[in-house]
Design goal:
By secondary structure, this protein is an all-alpha fold. The chain has 4 helices and no strands. The chain has one domain. Helix 1 crosses helix 3, helix 2 runs antiparallel to helix 3 and helix 2 packs across helix 4.
């Protein structure tokens, strides 16, 4: 889990400093970041409480920014995912 958190923490830092453009996350990669953060959120918060108050803060920033900037696209991806789940395809 720390590999994923660190990887997206760096991506978040690069996006925050504008070295990585936000359009990169417009497609399914943005939805993947959102899903990964949501899956890791409890572990991230636990690490913040127990060892590092700033753990994966840029990963969280990236998640929040993607949700803010691509709200419509993320909504479509969630609907497609729910449909596939209900059909038993994933």
């Amino acid at each position: 889990m720390s590999f994923i958190s660190n990887f997206f923490h760096v991506w978040g830092l690069l996006a925050k400093k504008r070295y990585l453009p936000m359009w990169v996350f417009e497609s399914s990669s943005g939805f993947s970041v959102v899903k990964l953060y949501e899956g890791a959120k409890d572990i991230i918060l636990e690490n913040r409480l127990t060892s590092n108050a700033f753990y994966a803060e840029n990963f969280e920033w990236l998640h929040d920014r993607i949700l803010q900037k691509f709200k419509h696209e993320i909504s479509i991806c969630r609907q497609q995912e729910e449909k596939l789940l209900s059909e038993g395809k994933i």
